Amino acid sequence: GQQLALQAAGVLRTIGEYEEALKQCDDVLKHSPADEAAGCLKGELLTDLGRYQEALKVFDGLVAADAKNHRAWALRGRLAATLGLKDIVKRTSDHFFDLFNGNAERYYRGEVEDPLELAYVGLGIQDENPKDAFEVGFMLAEQLVEKRGLKEPEVFVWSGRLAQEKYSFDFAGKRFQTALRMRPKLPDALTGLAQVVLAVRHDITRAEPMLKEALEVNPRHAEAHLTLAMIHLQEDNDAEAKKHLDAALAANPAHLDALAMLAFYYHDLKLPDREAEVERRVLAVNPRHADYYCSVGELLESKRGFAEAPEYYRKAIALDPAASALEVAYRE
Fold it and tell me: For residue 154, which of 185, 181, 189 has the smallest C-alpha distance?
């Protein structure tokens, strides 16, 4: 009965019925509080619904109960990255880097049951290992999903995000579409695909409905709010842009891109005192946050041309002289 209830929860999640799926998980956990699969699924559902602190508590409990629950480690790590919780992200990276070093042959032979573990091996070693090893984690994870016919869209969302970071938008778009075939209302996949459509085609009429659909499922989805804020800023619709920026920062107060966009918003309205407040907010968290200044400079450059950007690039370079690409751009 409990196994059937868990399968039902998975099906309900696939069709976007997150609250009903959560009830099924709770029923299973009422009878079997230590059921790891039900615990992980409950944490994932709470994440889908934007109930991040509750999800984090679930994953913390799972990892504390069994340090070898690699799926719980992976899911907690991704949520921590979303929330900007760097200490948990670092512990997760260390966990999977050590796991990879001790079991590399096992991964290459495909002797791992959980594709999320494989995917996070890739994510976890990105700062410690060469780029190729990072990509191998995703390649093996995708092969495992396809070989076994598993419904694990997160593997493809994470892979799509990596491709986005490398400006491989066609590859990213295909990964997000694969994820949406597995789970049609997955907020991360809807938001990622909308961002790809905006980057490649600048097609707001196609992207905006996807972002709104993501927010119907998870009203606290920071990335969807942030992307809508960017659209409204480009359309000079300041009131709507501010509404979505506030919502993004309510969901994740440490979201660097949202803070950078808020600073740009105040700069654009010629409100230097408010912009300075945002700057203090960022630097209180990390006094050497060069990326913040880079982001504000890039936003200014994209909307108003290069003239006002050097001030921010200069600050970024002062904090991080290794920002060589920006230094070259600034000098030219």
Answer: 189
8 Å CB contact between 128 and 109: no
Average pLDDT over residues 46-72: 91
Q: What is the CA radius of gyration of the chain?
A: 21
pTM for this one?
Answer: 0.70
CA 20 – CA 217 distance, rounded (Å): 13
Question: Cα–Cα distances in Å, from 326 out to 75, 87, 184, 301?
Answer: 34, 28, 39, 12
CB 114 within 8 A of CB 70: yes
Record the tokens describing residue 138, joined without a space. 């995703």
Contact 266, 278 (CB under 8 A): yes
How far apart are the C-alpha atoms of 315 and 228, rounded to whole Å? 28
As a residue count, the chain comes to 332
For the cut 60, the answer to whether the pLDDT of residue 37 exceeds it is yes
Burial of 129 (0-12, 13-18, 19+ CB in 10 A): middle
CA distances from 255 to 13, 80, 248, 249, 258 (A): 27, 12, 8, 7, 5
Distance in angstroms (rounded) separating the CA atoms of residues 325 and 321: 10
Q: Which residue has the higher pLDDT, 14 or 77?
A: 77
- For residues 30 and 169, give the distance between their C-alpha atoms in angstroms, rounded to a whole number: 44
Tell me how far apart the alpha carbons of residues 200 and 192 are, in angstroms, rounded to a whole number. 12
